[in-house]
Amino acid sequence: MNKYECYLTCPRGLENILSQEISEIINKKNIIDNGGVKFNGTKEDIYKLNYHSRVGMNLLIKLFDGNANNIDELYQLIYQYKWEMLIPTNKTFSIRTKINSKIIPKQNFTTLKIKDAIVDKIQKQMGSRPSIDKKSPHFYITVYIKNNKISIFINSSGKPLFMRGYRTKIHKAAINESLASGILKSTNWLKENILYDPMCGSGTFLLEAAMQIFNMPAGIVRKQYAFFNFSDFDNNLWELIRKEGMDNINYNKAILQGSDIIEKNIELCIESAKKLGIEKYIKFTRSDFRDISPNKNKGTVLINPPYGHRIGEIEKLQSLYKDYGDHIKNNFSGFDGYIFTGNLELLKYVGLRTKRKIILKNGKIDCRLAFYPLKKGKY
Ligand SMILES: C[S@@+](CC[C@H](N)C(=O)[O-])C[C@H]1O[C@@H](n2cnc3c(N)ncnc32)[C@H](O)[C@@H]1O
């Protein structure tokens, strides 16, 4: 069986968790890198990971490596590949470049040159050429350039895997699904205990938690993967993997509760839960967190509060963080408290002793997942 050199990207800081997840899904050795994990996989592994990975974002398959010391050498390197065997002339493609090099110029010009090389080669061999579609292409080419080392990949996922397909509308400060799932896996949350998110926004933590509890494939409602367009796409194999994933769903006991001060957000949560068919398993209510107290004495309370880069203003947020710290201290004793934020200054206003802080990135924003064990009378 053919083996492919693969690279699954993930939010920075979640590489170890992704590595563990890859071992669980395909039982293959893998190598942790910055921002992703490398492994050798079969077609079956590629389909399975695209369908099941909760933390992975783009599953890239290596096409070839090479060296280029200037832009003309880069053109030649790209041109020599049999692109006509990969991209049919009536299909579309996009190119994403990541450049960290003193000798190869930054993005736009280089991307254009790579595009020219691919298109020129196909035109020469086939007499016509595929077109570029930046939004929804059939084929996604990714090129990494580090100094004079060039690696060319095809992205088997297409749109990133955090686009699960369960959102009907986007909450403007929603956390991405891969990051949310990885955060859950970074906490001490036990699936049989309550998980509470009192600032749930569009409900990402709770929806991802439910999918984890029920062993639902991450891509259960996703309609499209780029590998569907590959010439060797094996529909029977894909259907088998999908069926196996569906057969393994188990509606175990779940105690999941979320609330948000904005009614519209609660509507979003319920719409997404309905899309996944799990609305009866998660309790969503409209409420200020100050009015929430659980009727349990252990569990996990996890929030991703507003943090100023996107919504809210700093002074208001300082008192929000302070009030939240006071509130969970007084109402959630016995719980494990977690706050995920991109504003490290605001964390200081929580006023609780942090047991651990995990460094994570949300896109380019430096974030922390802070852990507060909430014990009675120990502050
Ligand atoms: C960064 S967003 C959370 C996004 C969420 N993690 C998601 O993935 O959609 C912060 C949320 O806190 C909510 N919020 C702000 N103040 C609140 C309060 N006093 N009580 C409850 N929710 C509040 C906002 O309405 C917003 O939806």
Structural write-up:
With 379 residues, this protein is of the alpha/beta class. The protein folds into two domains: 4-155, VC0802-like (2-Layer Sandwich); 177-215 and 252-373, Rossmann fold, CATH 3.40.50.150. The protein is 33% helix and 24% strand. Strand 14 (356-362) and strand 15 (365-373) form a beta hairpin. It is elongated and about 75 Å long. The relative contact order is 0.12. The model has no long low-confidence stretch (mean pLDDT 95).
Give a brief description.
By secondary structure, the protein is α/β, with parallel strands linked by helices.
* Distinct small molecules: S-adenosylmethionine
**What integer is the average pLDDT?**
95
Q: Briefly, what CATH class of the largest domain? A: Alpha Beta
Task: Give the tally of structural domains.
Answer: 2
Strand content: 15-25%
| Total beta strands | 15
Kindly report the oligomeric state of this protein: single chain
Topology (SSEs and partners):
Elements: E1 4-9, H1 15-26, E2 31-33, E3 36-41, H2 43-52, E4 59-67, H3 71-79, H4 83-86, E5 92-100, H5 107-126, E6 131-132, E7 139-146, E8 149-155, H6 177-186, E9 194-197, H7 204-213, H8 235-247, E10 256-260, H9 263-276, E11 282-286, E12 299-303, H10 314-331, E13 335-341, H11 344-347, E14 356-362, E15 365-373
Parallel strand pairs: 5-6, 5-7, 9-10, 9-12, 10-11, 12-13
Antiparallel strand pairs: 1-3, 1-4, 2-3, 4-8, 7-8, 13-15, 14-15
The protein binds S-adenosylmethionine (SAM).
S-adenosylmethionine is lined by residues 171, 173-175, 198-199, 201-202, 204, 260-262, 265, 288-289, 304-306, 320.
